[in-house]
Amino acid sequence: MKVLIALLAAALMGVSQGAVAHEGEDHNKKKTGPVKKEQKAWGIAGDAKAAGRTVELVMTDNMRFTPDRVEVKHGETVRFAVKNGGKVMHEMVIGNKKELDEHAALMMKFPTMEHDEPYMTHVAPGETGELVWAFNRPGDFDFACLIAGHYQAGMVGKIKVIAAEKSDGPGKAHKP
After folding, report:
1. 108-162 tens-digit pLDDT
2. Alpha carbon separation from 112 to 20, 24, 83, 97, 106 (Å, rounded)
3. Which domains does the chain possess?
4. What rounded mean pLDDT belongs to the chain?
5. Is residue 169 exposed (0-12), middle (13-18) or buried (19+ Cβ within 10 Å)?
6. φ, ψ for residue 159, nearest 5 deg
């Protein structure tokens, strides 16, 4: 029985140390190796060389993004330069409302949860993070800071991906 209690205590200490270890991590540091390219409803990880433009966003401690609305063309690869103008950690996570709602709820339950996907960037105070995303699907999508309490305080934005115009010949264009 004493051995079982000792093992249980050791396991609980290991779990709590793992959760605390995440708190002091440098979230802005990107992991090395190839980017995971998984198709999402809102697009797929983009190649930095393919980025046609850079959109600069600023995150602040008033729980807002500036700008909070971005428009891109279907098929466009965008580099987001995300500056943290605040004094606390912030992040930008691209997704759809359903997925962001679910992830935000998890972050409220597990505020030290680790996550590192190509559609998100964690930015320390005063630093700038980068996210490169290929918008290969038209539609209306969202971005947010999912750090516990930030999403709930309204730290959200919108991305509108507009279908590209098609040409019917010289001088003629129509929308699909």
Report:
1. 999 888 778 999 999 999 999 999 999 999 999 999 999 999 999 999 999 999 9
2. 7, 10, 22, 22, 10
3. 44-165 (2.60.40.420)
4. 82
5. exposed
6. -125, 125
